[in-house]
Each structure stands twice: as C-alpha cells, then as structure tokens.
Amino acid sequence: MAMLFVAGASLSINWALITGPVTLISVTRGFQSAFVLIFTVFLSIWFPKILKEELSKSALGVKVLAIFLMFLGLYLIYQ
C-alpha cells in the first residue's frame, strides 16, 4: 500500500516539474520537511508507542532552524 503512495507522489512531482516552473515546484517541495516535523511531533505526543522522537527544546530548536534555513535557501533561489 505504501508503495502505491510513493508511486503516486513520484508521478505527481514529475508531472508538476514538466508542466510548471521548477523553482516554484522546489519551493512547494520545501514544505515537506515542515509537515514531516509536525506529523512526527504529533505522533510522538499522542501515540508514543508508534513513534518515539526526542522533543526537548534543543532538539526541536535544531530541527526548526534547519527547516528555516531550507526555506531561506529556497526563497533565495526563487528570487
């Protein structure tokens, strides 16, 4: 089942790259890391048996900083 989602995602990304501006597609793909962080924090808090992630202030700070730097880089590329 997961492979179907991966295949669908790959086809969607490739279709977007063919039909749209590459820089805009790259910016939207940058949101993926933010959604993964939010989803991971959600699972770690409400379902710790499914996923256990370190949620200390320093660990989350590093992850948020990394995501911010990725967004900044994508923004600078898009400019």
- How far is the first residue's CA from the last residue's CA? 39 Å
Stretches where pLDDT falls below 50 for ≥5 residues? none
The portion of residues forming beta strands comes to under 5%
Domain tally: 1
Number of strands: 0
* Average pLDDT, all residues: 84
Q: Cα-atom Rg, whole angstroms? A: 15 Å
Helix tally equals: 3
Structural class by sheet pairing and helices: mainly alpha
Largest sheet: none
Order of helices and strands: HHH
How much helical structure, as a percent, in the residues? over 70%
Query: What general outline do the C-alpha atoms trace?
Result: flat
Structure commentary:
The protein has 79 residues and is mostly helical. The protein has one domain (22-78). It is 82% helix and 0% strand. The chain has helices at residues 2-19, 22-46, 57-78. α2 runs antiparallel to α3 (57-78). The longest helix is centred in the middle third of the chain and has 25 residues, at 22-46. The chain is flat and about 40 Å long. It starts with a helix and ends with a helix. The mean pLDDT is 84.
Short summary:
This protein has 79 residues and is mainly alpha-helical. It is built from 3 helices and no strands.
What is the topology?
Layout: H1 2-19, H2 22-46, H3 57-78
Helix pairs in contact: 2-3
List keywords for this structure.
single chain, 79 residues, mainly alpha, 82% helix
